[in-house]
Amino acid sequence: MENVKKLVVIGGGFAGLELVKRLGNSMDYQIVLVDSNNYNFFPPLIYQVSTGFMEPSAISYPFRKILRKLKNVRFRLGSLEKVVPEENKIILSNGELKYDILVMATGTETNFFGNKNIEEKSLPMKTISDALSLRNVILTRFDRATRIHNAEERRKHLSFVIAGAGPTGVELSGTLAEMKNSIITKDYPELKEKDLGEITLIDGQESVLASMSKNAKEYTSKKLSELGVTLIMNTMVKDFNGETVYLSNGNKIQSKNLIWAAGVSAKTFPGFSKDSFGAGKRLKTNQFNQVHLYNNIYALGDCSLIIGDKNYPNGHPQLAQPALQQAKKLAENLKGKDKNWKPFQYLDKGSLAIIGRNKAVLDFPGQKYSLKGFWAWLIWIFVHIMGLVNFKNKIRTLYNWLGYYIYKDQYFRMIIKPTERNNNQS
Hints:
alpha/beta, FAD/NAD(P)-binding domain
């Protein structure tokens, strides 16, 4: 059909997949979804994979299976290397693609703020691969500690420093603390309670969960402290050599485990004008998500910096809801037969963070009201289960959580290491 436009979407996260689903089976577009992984995954629960509370398949699902019923959609496995706007094409790791409309939904990557030591020696937690690597490291360190007789060296293996006290850092530190209190000495009888090192949560802000309400911050700080987590605020991690964590206040923490959840930045790609990038390397867009200086390129979600929203002069939060809502609005505009596009307006649906079993915080829109404890925890569970991509994943996740709630234990503490074969087949 002559009027069918080729729409290429880069990235199958919240925004990219939502856009593809909403334009699926449209007669106006032939869509290609490009991603470096062949699966979609649910980032808010990735910390549960890293601590052995969930298996990777519970929070991930193959793109090709998701897209089966969308007749106008094809999937391309590959990594974006360059954009060539003047030729309406992109260059991938395994070929090229032409487009009429390009949508960037490439998300973010871990930001190490230029510190090479931290980048090389810390443990990031951004992807499924990161989560599995972290799980292997945690379990390997526990096992190795059973064979170490030097008390100081043993504590280095069993101490964990988490940099970044946002939702990910809070959730991870709470989970590790619960493991320390209820699981480790049972699984590793060679280790006594006095052998277990500290769990330390560090952030440059004044409090944990800096973007949430005062009530949420205070409750979270209190509950983390009760779980045994040491909080160090107004402090940044300055360096790490694999044995010692150096802090900006001059102090040191002896630990082999620095988990990096301190920040992200948007992924950048050659081919865009430098003037198209804003704070955090995000692509500047108007309120229709159209990238600055380009009339047929759009950016959604974490990689998009919408200019012109008075309520969010520094851009919308890099969370699931803004990404989903932007994708929905762009899909509506692209499907519209007229040229009167409607600008994007973000609807704040509140903020959630879990601390541990029966402990979570919820800020309602505008932060005028908040909820904490068991009921916030139940809402957190419901929201996150509903956010999973298919029914089977929802049931599996609920089953895993019920098991942990009843037995205070989890089932996926396996060290599974990939082989070192080089599989360059893409």
